[in-house]
């Protein structure tokens, strides 16, 4: 069966062998955190909900012998798997700095004076026994089947040994035992793994083969996954950088984590919470990312299971509300933060928060990335992403913005917003009517009815909505938009404002209410009131371009050209089809006298766009028109002349542009500036005189007059006569 997710893979054992996702079956049940204690407070949210039917999941594409991660956007070199035997630890011991009591958490086994730290003994604080010595040695036959080769590593739940399965073709396997066999919680966790983890089957998750006992201790038998963990990759980068931390580039980190997101979706669909995600627990093996160490996995409704996590990654509500989808997404956000910054204090000062955006250059450069981390790691779990699919979709959007900043545009249609409703590149001011609009949630009971409402007159729309089959949010939003349009026509927004306030109370946590509230503010001529609404949408949807376009527009209307240009730049770089962003960026740049920058913005409009010709006309005018800060220089006029020659527009419009150019050229000459002949055409050499410019200007006006009528024709002929230089004939 072929994968139906725009992926070249096929469905095997219920999941795609390339993207790792299950076939599309309909809406995914959302697992909500339930309090672990009866006295725990209920979870409520004041953030904007982003749960709509538009979520999509993106897999990876294969290219030759290499695999491009994140839906084919990022090229990641595969890691060659070395001989497993070379991964054995030379000395199997737990460093003193990692020896803690399993019961009370105090330090144990530490050096005191000249006496080295003990690897076994009793906690001086609570008397709990500890033993950090591995019970397995080379040659041990565990469960009558697995021959131990040596220790691979140690972790919070136990030692990890490499072994050979003597019953199955001497395949390499991993034995994961208890770090301290006297720890009842650790033993309970291991038993829980035996109960359900053997049923986990996903290409991005390590396979559990068996659970065996040896000398009174339990061991989990897992698939051996060679390669390098993300923590190991960071260590290698540090070593190559002379011992100084060298964080991963944002695009690479996002690509790595995006590859593992389907594994989280798989677990969450089955009511399983991973709990302990961090760079140590995800490995790049060849050209694939694998989630390892399932020791902390629990059922979402198991309130008695021992919980394992890592300080600095674990969600703050775990002790009271317990594990949930939201707590897993929190660990993903924290992992991204650690991978991409020198995040000192992430286990102390910033154990449950992020540094200010100004602390790291990568946060300053990529605002959307910082907002992604912020939403994933909010203290209130109800304010985080709804599920792994939604978070992955926003991560993909952020990744596209990051790649575009590096010069590689990889646009994709939004699943939440329409494209631009209309674009007028000739407008001197931004138009809020051009902004995209949210797509209808197809799961809304009234979605089919709303699709049949095709009239455009706002009064007629309101009349039709009275016969809607149900009073739903989508019906209310359509009505609010009609009230806004009615207010534009009639000059009163009282009805729209009253309805918007009602929806804010009833559906205040939905980002679409904030979006229309922002539109209403713009329609009322209050950009400062609209801005926080669009900012809230941006915080909820950091991977979407529409809220950034709206923020650019509100800032421009408020007179903040520099702030507006930043948002316009991101939007037009990421998806050039947003021509309103290119036009807005050009206006903002031109307002400061940056003519070449304005032309660069107009040139972002692709040649396939219906607005392409308008953008080129805009580029000519950006080069020609006078500006309070600076007059067009010689190079600007020559560039405008060359661009006019390449334009494919009607003769009258071409003549009008040429007239604007020549009028400015005449002013320059009268101001004592010598102009090159190229201003009159690409084949002209030398310099030009006022007489030459006047003859050319006369011809331009007469060309315009040929297409004009009535008074306009007379006016243009008069201009042509006035422009003609005095002659004797």
The percentage helix is 40-55%
Please, what is the CATH homologous superfamily of the largest domain? Transferase(Phosphotransferase) domain 1
What's the helix count? 23
Global Rg = 32 Å
Could you explain how this protein is built, in words?
The protein is of the alpha+beta class and 729 residues long. The protein has five domains: 1-78 and 239-410, Transferase(Phosphotransferase), domain 1 (Orthogonal Bundle), CATH 1.10.510.10; 82-88 and 137-225, Phosphorylase Kinase, domain 1; 93-133, no CATH class; 414-605, Tetratricopeptide repeat domain (Serine Threonine Protein Phosphatase 5, Tetratricopeptide repeat), CATH 1.25.40.10; 631-729, Alpha Horseshoe (Serine Threonine Protein Phosphatase 5, Tetratricopeptide repeat), CATH 1.25.40.10. Helix content is 40%, strand content 10%. It is built from 23 helices and 18 strands. The chain has a six-stranded antiparallel β-sheet, covered by helices on one side. It has a three-stranded antiparallel β-sheet with strand order 3-4-5. The protein has a three-stranded antiparallel β-sheet with strand order 14-16-17. A hairpin with a 2-residue loop joins β9 (146-155) and β10 (158-165). The longest helix is centred in the middle third of the chain and has 20 residues, at 250-269. The N and C termini lie far apart (85 Å).
Précis, in short:
This protein is α+β, with helices and mostly antiparallel strands and about 725 residues long. It is built from 23 helices and 18 strands.
């Amino acid at each position: 069966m072929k994968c139906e997710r725009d992926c070249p893979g096929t469905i095997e054992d219920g999941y795609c062998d390339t993207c790792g996702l299950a076939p599309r079956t309909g809406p995914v049940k959302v697992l909500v955190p339930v309090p672990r204690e009866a006295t725990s407070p209920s979870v409520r949210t004041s953030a904007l909900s982003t749960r709509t039917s538009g979520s999509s999941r993106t897999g990876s594409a294969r290219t030759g012998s290499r695999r491009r991660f994140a839906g084919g956007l990022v090229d990641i070199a595969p890691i060659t798997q070395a001989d497993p035997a070379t991964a054995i630890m030379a000395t199997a011991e737990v460093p003193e700095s990692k020896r803690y009591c399993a019961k009370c958490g105090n330090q144990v086994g530490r050096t005191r004076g000249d006496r080295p730290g003990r690897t076994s003994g009793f906690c001086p604080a609570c008397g709990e026994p500890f033993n950090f010595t591995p019970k397995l040695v080379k040659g041990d036959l565990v469960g009558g089947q697995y021959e131990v080769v040596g220790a691979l590593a140690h972790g919070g739940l136990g030692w990890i040994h490499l072994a050979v399965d003597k019953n199955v073709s001497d395949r390499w396997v991993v034995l994961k035992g208890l770090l301290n066999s006297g720890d009842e919680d650790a033993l309970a966790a291991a038993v829980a793994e035996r109960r359900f983890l053997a049923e986990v089957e996903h290409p991005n998750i390590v396979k559990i083969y068996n659970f065996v006992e040896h000398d009174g201790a339990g061991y989990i038998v897992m698939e051996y996954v060679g390669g390098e963990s993300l923590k190991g990759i960071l260590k290698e980068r540090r070593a190559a950088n002379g011992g100084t931390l060298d964080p991963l580039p944002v695009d690479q980190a996002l690509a790595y984590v995006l590859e593992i997101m389907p594994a989280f979706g798989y677990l969450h669909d089955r009511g399983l919470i991973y709990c302990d995600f961090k760079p140590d627990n995800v490995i790049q093996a060849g050209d694939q990312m694998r989630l390892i160490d399932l020791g902390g996995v629990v059922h979402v409704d198991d309130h008695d299971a021992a919980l394992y996590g890592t300080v600095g990654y674990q969600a703050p509500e775990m002790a009271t509300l317990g594990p949930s989808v939201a707590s897993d997404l929190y660990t993903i956000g924290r992992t991204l933060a650690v991978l991409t910054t020198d995040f000192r204090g992430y286990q102390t000062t910033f154990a449950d928060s992020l540094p200010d955006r100004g602390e790291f250059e990568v946060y300053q450069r990529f605002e959307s990335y910082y907002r992604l981390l912020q939403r994933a790691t909010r203290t209130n779990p109800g304010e985080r992403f709804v599920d792994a699919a939604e978070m992955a979709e926003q991560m993909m959007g952020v990744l596209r913005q990051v790649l575009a900043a590096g010069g590689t545009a990889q646009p994709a249609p939004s699943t939440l917003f329409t494209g631009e409703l209309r674009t007028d590149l000739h407008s001197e001011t931004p138009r809020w009517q051009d902004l995209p609009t949210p797509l209808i949630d197809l799961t809304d009971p009234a979605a089919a009815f709303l699709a049949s409402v095709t009239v455009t007159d706002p009064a007629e729309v309101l009349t039709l909505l009275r016969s809607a089959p149900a009073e739903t949010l989508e019906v209310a939003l359509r009505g609010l938009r009609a009230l806004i349009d009615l207010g534009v026509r009639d000059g009163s927004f009282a009805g729209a404002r009253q309805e918007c306030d009602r929806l804010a109370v009833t559906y205040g946590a939905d980002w679409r209410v904030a979006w229309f509230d922002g539109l209403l503010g713009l329609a009322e001529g209050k950009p400062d009131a609209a801005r926080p609404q669009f900012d809230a949408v941006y915080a909820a949807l950091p991977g979407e371009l529409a809220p950034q376009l709206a923020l650019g527009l509100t800032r421009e209307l408020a007179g903040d050209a520099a702030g507006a240009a930043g948002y316009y730049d991101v939007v037009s770089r990421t998806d050039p089809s947003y021509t309103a962003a290119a036009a807005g960026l050009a206006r903002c740049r031109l307002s400061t006298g940056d003519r070449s920058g304005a032309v660069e913005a107009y040139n972002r409009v692709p040649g396939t766009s219906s607005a392409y010709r308008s953008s080129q006309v805009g580029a000519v005018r950006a080069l020609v028109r006078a500006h309070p800060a600076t007059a067009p220089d010689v190079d600007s006029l020559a560039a405008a002349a060359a661009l006019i020659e390449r334009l494919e527009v009607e003769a009258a419009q071409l003549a009008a542009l040429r007239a604007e150019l020549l009028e400015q050229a005449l002013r320059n000459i009268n101001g004592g500036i010598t102009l090159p002949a190229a201003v009159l055409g690409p084949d002209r050499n030398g310099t030009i005189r006022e007489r030459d410019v006047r003859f050319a200007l006369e011809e331009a006006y007469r060309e315009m007059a040929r297409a004009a009528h009535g008074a306009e024709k007379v006016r243009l002929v008069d201009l042509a006569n006035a422009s003609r230089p005095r002659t004797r004939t």
